[in-house]
Amino acid sequence: MTIHKSKGLEFPIVFVCGTARQFNRMDTKSRMVIHPELGIGMDYIDPVRRIRGATLCKKAVAKQIELEDQGEELRVLYVALTRAKEKLVMTGVTKELSLRLTQRNRLSFRMRAAAKCYLDWILPAMLASGDGDRIQVWGAKELVEEEAQSQLADAEGLGELLYRASRPDEEADAYVKAQLSYRYPQEAETNRRTKYAVSELKGRLQEAVFEEDELPVTDNEPEEPASYVPRFAGGEGEANRGAFYGTAMHRAVACLPVALLAGNPKLGILLDTQLAQLTKEGRLTEEMRDLLGKKKLFAFYRSNLAVRMKAASERGALYLEQPFVMGRPADEVEGDGSQTMVLLQGIIDAFFIEDKEIVLVDYKTDRIQSEEELVMRYESQLNWYKRALESNLGMHVRERILYSFYLDKAIVMEDEE
Predict the structure, then answer these.
(1) 20 to 30 Å CA-CA from 54: which of 20, 38, 123, 283?
(2) CATH of region 4-134, choose from 3.40.50.80, 3.40.50.1100, 3.40.50.300, 3.40.190.120
(3) Residues 83-115: pLDDT tens digits?
């Protein structure tokens, strides 16, 4: 990482590399230099003699900029040298090492100002403080010898391979073939996805159950559709309006207080008041509010399911919009026999605890012909939700309920055999 990104962090061992890299002085080499206090310094141009040169003013401004840049470099170096908890290793490549190793005096202001890189500060400081024995010098000879030894070791292996390959016998052929045709036995796992959404698995099941030209429509149109807004004007078009309606209905039941609305004789007035309050607080957008089917919400909060949810809410046992992640063998998702663990994630619309057992609730806005059609579409999805709840909470899911806003009805799914 860069030194700037390491600020505030600590590591057991830190390598500070490239300490001989020269500082960037481009700010002082342009034809015009600017300092916030000293002002502007420019080159002098003589059009008659056709010459150009730096003025005294420019040199003063450039020197001040250079000193301030060096101050910033010192602060950056301080950050680099204070990241290590146990060991600090600094490296640099230079052609002027002998000159730098002769500077054993304390770093004067002149020496600090004349520095061109971090190494011009580090080496004299170490020598002056008596830490010169910590400096290790690696010349070209040592580096070449080390690289030669490494290449010789590689060449031995290559020579063995070439020797075996040159022998015209079955042993050599088998050896080369085995080396060049090796296939990783778990290659299929390297391309496997590690996370799935439950809604995606539901979509796969629908494609398997229905013919391609008979795929079900999975979103409902609002009772009173909002006026069409073209895409270029900020709208999303007619095609996605049904999906927005489903999103709006889910958002509404997640935010509306079921304990206040369920079974209340003043439900109509309270529903309008609560929707207006949610819109004012920004929890429900104006577009969502316009798309809501208020008659559908009214029917939901008059239902027996809402009354049960209200009772659970008063007991502190109602949970809305609960995300989950669980690990399952890949075979349960892909059906390919693999036992590799993959993650399944999803969001459960609602569940509540009743008589020490879980009641799972999922809201749907699909246009359907019958209850059986809705159950067929979403049975797999609710089965995954059931597994997640039972695995994470250690409690039995007694009921799985699909509430259809299209039918204004709660559909209780039969338990798995």
Answers:
(1) 20
(2) 3.40.50.300
(3) 999 999 999 988 877 666 666 667 778 888 888
